[in-house]
Every structure is written in C-alpha cells, then in structure tokens.
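Write out structure tokens for DUF4846 domain-containing protein.
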Amino acid sequence: MSKHYILIRFYQFLSLLMLLNFQTAFSQVIETTQLMIIDESKSTIHTRFTPPKGFFWAKELSGSFGEYLVNFPLYPPSFPVRNFNAVPIEKQNNHVAILKIDVGEKDLQQCADAWIRLYSEYLWSQKRFEEIGFEFTSGQFFAWNDFKRGVRTKELNNRVSFHMTGKIDDSYENFRKYLNIIFRYAGTISLNKESFSVLQNKQIKTGDFLIKPGSPGHSVIIVGVAINSSGKKLYLLAESFMPAQDIHVLRNPLNSNISPWYELDVNAPKTVTAKYIFSPTSIKRFHALK
C-alpha cells in the first residue's frame, strides 16, 4: 500500500471526525436552548410566566377565584415594591413581579390582608356583595352589607362593638373603607380560623394559602399552578409584608432552576419562601371556597 494512499485515507478520517464533532456541538446547542420563563413584555400573571420545561398552566374554572388570580394585571417589570407611603422598600431582590393593585395609605394591608383584599375584590367584580364578610381576631363577624347600611365599629378597652349610624353608602370608595376596618381587626389568626387544611398535594389549587397564625404571623397566596403529565405541580406565590406594601410575586431563593415557581408539600416539616419560613407547612383554603 503506497504512502500516498495512506495519506489520503488519513485526511478522509480526519474530515469525518471533525464533521462528527461539529454535529455533536451543534446538537448540544439546540438541546440546551430553553423557552423564556419570564416574558417581561406581558402584563398578567398567566402571560408573563411560562412554566418550566415539561409543565403547563393548570386549567382554572371559568369565573373562579383561581381564574381571577392568574389573569391579574401586573405593573411593568421595572416597578419597585413600595410601602403604604409609596416609598420603595429597602430590599428589591425578593420579587419578580408586582400586582397592579393599591396598598392603601395606611399600614394596614399586610400579609393575611393581601389575601382578604384579593378575594374581596374578586367577589366585588362578580357582584357577589352578599358574600363579602370576615371574622375579626375576636371572632366577631362583619359583613360588607352591614357596613354599607351604616353599621360602624367602636373600640373601647380593646373590645370592639357595633353601632348604627344610618349612613347608607354602597360605593366602591366606601367598600375600601370597610376593608380597612377588616385589615385592622382581622389577620392571620382569624383567617386561619376561617379556613380548613388542604391535606393532599393533589388538592392544592390557586387561591389557597400558606399560613402561620400569630402576632406576628405570616401568609402567602398561591397565585398560579403548573402541572406536568404525571400530575406533579409547581406554584407561584405572592405576598404583602410588614410594613404594608405592594403585593408581589416571590422569587424562589432555593431553586433557581425553576424560580419563580415553587414545589409545595403539605407534609413538609417546613417551607422556605423568599422572606419567610413556614414551620410547619400549613396550606389552607377559605371555608367559602370548598
């Protein structure tokens, strides 16, 4: 066999090897390309956040609280989390989006109050006014229908009583005044009493909340659910905090691969969120949402 023939075969083998390496490198580039998880050009929870690979948005019932939440409008991505004085809070690295809803002008709309605000606004949008009502931490129930007819609260020696003023007002502005009363006298303790535990992971849905009752306690809201073909779920979480501040969707500090989505387990000894550790894990649902 001539040296010329051997040299030709060597160059043919070298060319084939280079081609295979190029194809391998090219295929690796294709495989590691992923869809954008957060599309900052979109303006609702459902459209801005893409579930991780293999997951898709869970279908929400038409007209449900869950549907209301996933379609909730968001501020532009550069918008900061502000407190009730409209001043940006110090730490701006725990959130990925801010719900487009006011926080009020007083230090009232905090953690559990954020859930109460969203659920009340949902009922108002559905014109289900007779369903708007919550318990105080004291156990006293106060309905919007009573407030709009003129019933007001009076506090004496740390006890709340009710009295009639005769001032009838069913305006939205008056509704916001009613909610401020609820925020003042309700909280994680009362919301915890007015809800029941979700006992199985497959039962967790949008609108449920993690809660630790106390003074202070804390609560975060599930504002979106993604699911894969085997039934595994991931969740978007939102919260307000102390002092009262814009309701914001949380970053996942422990799993950047799926952030801002979270894994939740009703049996977990603790659940770590961006700004709070729930220990033990307690996922609950308001009694009216059975």
